[in-house]
Amino acid sequence: MSSELLNLHARIGHELKDIEQTVQLALDAWEGTRRFPDQQSHFLNSVALNLHSFYNGLERIFETICRRLDPTFPTGERWHRDLLEQMGQEILKVRPAVLSAESIERVDEFLAFRHRVRNLYTFNLETERLHELLERLPDAWQSVRADIEAFRSLLQQAASEKEQ
After folding, report:
1. How many CB atoms lie within 10 A of CB 136?
2. CA distances (Å), 99 to each of 32, 137, 141, 161, in order?
3. Based on CB atoms within 10 Å of each CB, which residue in 5, 72, 111, 158 is the most buried?
4. Where are the domains of the chain?
């Protein structure tokens, strides 16, 4: 069991590095819209894709935790939202809450945006909305990353205790 916990710890760590890169790419793409206005639509597409990827990466972490530790995985039309909410719940004798209420609130709008990106052509996305999300991205990322890193520390601690 300790090797499974360490594997989960490592897998989450790799995903966090990829998400960090996605956050930076989104911010860099926004800067491109300012520096190269004649190519703005290309940079906005990149912003949208990377904001989409930001939440996708988080959701991969949530799915991995849920499938490996939790007794149930959400189903139905709202499973994405239910999974996010499940990450804010402690499951007695299984795991603590992965995310704080504050982190859930901060990333919830990225879940909604990801849904929009999947269901609209990118040229229909509003530039102002992309900018609003980009302004919120660093704080959302910092909050959720801190929660996930705290959870990873608990995984490592639990693995060490199981080996003793």
Report:
1. 14
2. 32, 16, 12, 23
3. 5
4. 2-163
